[in-house]
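B., you asked whether I could sanity-check this one before it goes into the benchmark set. Here's the sequence:
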Amino acid sequence: MVILITVQGNGLALLEEATRSLGSEAKARRAFTRAINRTGQTVGNEAGRALADQTGLPRRTGIKAVRRDVDRATPATLSYTINGQGGDISLKYFRPRETRKGVTANPWNKRTLYPSTFMKAGWWPKRVVKSNWNGQVFARDGDGHSYDGLKSKGAKRVGTKFTKQKSGLFIPIEMVQGATAAAWQQGARRLQPRIEHEVRHLTRGVVS
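And here's what the prediction gave me:
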């Protein structure tokens, strides 16, 4: 999934006007490049905060998600591309808490109970944190045991069997909907004023 911030609509007319004001297309493209990159970074931070609020992820994680893989604008491309990445996010990232009924976690900023899931070992109330579980949320597979053959033929237990639990939340999908999508749309309106600012800067305020 890719989000692209680029000069659209009257962008060509703006480029021609900036070229006349600055005396060369090369200078105009440099001004556009600075404007696009500055706008992309600013809007990316705002979208990252919106993403965190929308998904229940920590704020720094939301900002990192939209700034992790970015192709910045150059005078040749005049585009700022954000490459959204990520699969189904583990419940461990949504402030999980273990209860007797199962773990509660906060995807989409909604505290939800996941019955029969767990984060610790042992019997209640003396539950034990397992350091090598790394704060993950688990659910038992089947009866929670693995066997050295077919259980129906009297196989012996050889270990426990459980899997990490996912949230069902995918960052690339969340980046283009809800409050995060609105942040992109609102922020993109700042591009033209930023271009005009960069042109004024390069002309030392002669062009207003």
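One thing to flag: Helices lie at 11-22, 25-55, 59-67, 171-174, 178-188, 191-202. Otherwise nothing jumped out at me.
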